[in-house]
Write a structure and sequence with these properties.
By secondary structure, this protein is α/β, with parallel strands linked by helices. It is 26% helix and 19% strand. It contains seven helices and eight strands; from the N terminus they run E-E-E-E-H-E-H-E-H-H-E-H-E-H-H.
Length: 269
């Protein structure tokens, strides 16, 4: 499979320039636009819903959108089999890019990556935004078991208003490009799962080390990472602010322009 065949042709990358970096003999693709303070965004477990939410940020920041290995246009790295491997991948990537200090925004699975990256490499992160982050073990508000959710039902779990996703969904269930992309990215996520969820049972022991300004964003209709988890994150992070958004699901950045703006306001404060 060549690099140009990876990803989904529905994703609009216009306005961003494409960069490639080799990390651990693996091609990592980064999309970048804007100027100013770097804002690195770590995506969640699927990339097929596009980058539209990030375009507003480019008027304020140097927006950097890497695809994780095994996702989007980045190549697979069979040596990556844990979250820790992804953290080391990103440390190497940021070194190659010359990024010494930046704002870090992470969504869902990328939220867990962002939190754990900031715990380990605090000196690099100026401010942190966690958008419906996965990873925390909250027994009374568990994440669903992704292994038992039928694939055709996943879109309804992601948004409050399914119309938000219609431009990105295939017209036919036999769309090979879409199905292959989902299978590939789902497999990459699957290697990270613990008991069917993205929980790290030790994460709550280390969130106190996030002694940097942190913003938590959540959609109040989130069915993937329940908003009931938000106060638990809030209680464990020293310098944190929580903002929730009405009529928004897991893809709160896609559904809510106010959530996009909240990131700008927080990082510009």
């Amino acid at each position: 499979m060549n690099n140009n065949s990876l990803g989904d042709s529905r994703v609009d990358h216009s306005g961003f320039r494409r960069e490639e970096y080799t990390v651990d003999n693996t091609t990592t693709v980064v999309y970048r636009a804007g100027s100013g303070t770097p804002l690195v965004f770590l995506h969640g477990g699927g990339t097929w819903h596009g980058l539209e939410f990030a375009k507003a940020w480019t008027e304020h920041f140097d927006v950097i959108l890497p695809y994780h290995p095994g996702f989007g246009q980045s190549h697979d790295n069979p040596c990556i089999g844990s979250v820790h491997d992804y953290l080391l991948h990103y440390r190497e990537l940021f070194d190659l890019m010359g990024l010494t200090r930046f704002n870090l925004v992470g969504f869902s699975f990328g939220g867990r990556l962002a939190a754990e990256y900031a715990i380990q490499f605090t000196e690099q992160v100026a401010a942190l935004v966690l958008v419906a982050p996965a990873g925390l073990d909250v027994a009374e508000f568990p994440q669903p078991d992704f292994t038992v959710i039928p694939p055709e039902e996943i879109p309804s779990y992601l948004v409050h208003d399914i119309r938000q996703l219609l431009p990105y969904l295939p017209a036919s269930p036999d769309d090979d490009e879409f199905n292959n992309m989902r299978m590939r990215e789902g497999g990459s996520v699957g290697r990270m799962l613990r008991n069917g969820t993205m929980v790290n049972p030790k994460l709550r022991n280390w969130l106190h080390r996030l002694k940097i300004p942190t913003l938590l964003l959540w959609g109040n209709q989130d069915r993937i990472v329940p908003p009931g988890q938000a106060p638990h994150w809030q209680a464990l992070i020293p310098d944190v602010r929580l903002v929730t958004f009405e009529n928004a699901g897991h893809l709160v950045l896609d559904e809510s322009a106010a959530a996009q703006q909240a990131v700008i306001d927080f990082l510009n404060h």
